[in-house]
């Protein structure tokens, strides 16, 4: 995939929440300093997790590489999954046969992908709206934590109608994923310690960022394989997850059970084939 950044003006990190108004002596868009909240928080990635933007990124990147005189493949796209705009532009120019200023290439790319979303919309991943609604019903604070640029995130939010308590994007941090800064900032703004935050990610870079920040991680792999690990739960779809007062849990789906599905503790998986059988062999978890 590629780059992935919103907020109105002002405030530490430039981030304003949509449900928590600024409070005297507090963080704009967040909770007051030292707020002692009993509930955990849920931190969502965007591209590949909540929205199926990868086909749009592939089209946009292919168009840019045509202008730069080179080809583009799905393997190239996978190299940029969860990365920043700067890193993506470097990779694009590394394959180009025609020179162009990095700033201009970045403008081309973001203008192209943003216009595609505004014109055609963007598909929402299965279970995304249901899980967001479940988190809201549980009364948990929740944030969007993405490496996307601000304009693209705004276009996605306008297209999907999704709303979050706090928004953190590429323009709000000095280092994007896999650095922990995005998740540390999101935890600060929702007023919840990172250890009490559930981070949902689809990419190795995103998982590395959330884990480095100290969050509990639920991975829903998109283009690249992500293996289970201590403190990390891997599921096939957001439809496998539900929210409650204690945070995120994995749904146990029994075909012979007429009642509502039970909840499994974090770190376990619904019954069925081993997760490794559902993913083709791929590169190991990357840290950058």
Jot down its keywords.
single chain, alpha/beta, Rossmann fold, DNA polymerase, domain 1, 6-stranded parallel beta sheet, 8 helices, 32% helix, disordered N terminus
* Unreliably modeled segments: 1-36, 254-288
Specify the structural class. alpha/beta
> What is the mean predicted local confidence, pLDDT?
80
Q: Which CATH architecture of the largest domain would you pick?
A: 3-Layer(aba) Sandwich
What's the CATH class of the largest domain, please? Alpha Beta
Rg, Cα atoms, Å: 19 Å
Largest sheet: 6 strands, parallel
* Beta-strand segment tally: 9
Number of domains: 2
For the largest beta sheet, what order do the strands appear in spatially? Answer: 3-2-1-4-5-6
Listing every helix as H and every strand as E from the N terminus to the C terminus, the arrangement reads EHHHHHEHEHEHEEEEE
CATH topology of the largest domain: Rossmann fold
SS field, number of helical segments: 8
Query: Would you identify the CATH H-level superfamily of the largest domain?
Result: HAD superfamily/HAD-like
| Helix fraction by DSSP (H/I, runs of at least 4) | 25-40%
Terminal CA distance reads 14 Å
Shape: globular
Strand content: 5-15%
Q: How is this structure best described in words?
A:
Helix content is 32%, strand content 12%. It is an alpha/beta fold. The chain folds into 2 domains: 12-52 and 126-271, Rossmann fold, CATH 3.40.50; 54-120, Orthogonal Bundle (DNA polymerase, domain 1), CATH 1.10.150. It has a 6-stranded parallel sheet, covered by helices on one side. Strands 7-8-9 form a 3-stranded antiparallel sheet. Helix 8 (204-213) links the parallel strand 4 and strand 5. Helix 3 (85-95) packs across helix 4 (102-120). The protein starts with 40 loop residues before the first strand and ends in a 24-residue tail after the last strand.
């Amino acid at each position: 995939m590629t780059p992935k950044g919103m907020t109105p003006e002002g405030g530490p990190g430039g981030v304003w929440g949509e449900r928590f108004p600024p409070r005297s002596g507090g963080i704009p868009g967040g909770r007051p300093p030292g707020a002692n909240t009993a509930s955990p928080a849920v931190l969502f990635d965007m591209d590949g997790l909540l929205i199926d933007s990868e086909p749009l990124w592939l089209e946009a990147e292919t168009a840019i590489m045509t202008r730069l005189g080179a080809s583009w493949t799905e393997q190239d796209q996978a190299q940029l999954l969860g990365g920043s705009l700067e890193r993506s532009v470097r990779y694009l120019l590394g394959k180009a046969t025609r020179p162009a200023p990095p700033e201009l290439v970045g403008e081309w790319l973001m203008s192209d992908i943003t216009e595609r979303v505004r014109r055609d919309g963007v598909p929402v991943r299965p279970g995304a709206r249901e899980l967001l609604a479940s988190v809201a019903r549980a009364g948990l604070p929740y944030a969007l934590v993405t490496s996307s640029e601000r304009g693209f995130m705004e276009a996605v939010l306008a297209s999907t109608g999704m709303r979050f308590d706090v928004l953190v994007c590429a323009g709000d941090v000095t280092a994007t994923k896999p650095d922990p800064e995005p998740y540390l900032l999101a935890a600060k703004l929702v007023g919840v310690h990172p250890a009490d935050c559930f981070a949902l990610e689809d990419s190795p870079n995103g998982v590395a960022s959330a884990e480095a920040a100290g969050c509990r991680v639920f991975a829903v792999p998109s283009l690249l394989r992500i293996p289970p690990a201590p403190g990390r739960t891997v599921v096939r779809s957001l439809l496998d997850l539900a929210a409650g007062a204690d945070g995120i849990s994995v749904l146990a789906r029994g075909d012979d059970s007429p009642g509502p599905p039970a909840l499994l503790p974090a770190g376990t998986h619904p019954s069925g084939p081993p997760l490794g059988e559902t993913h083709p062999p791929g590169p190991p978890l990357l840290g950058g």
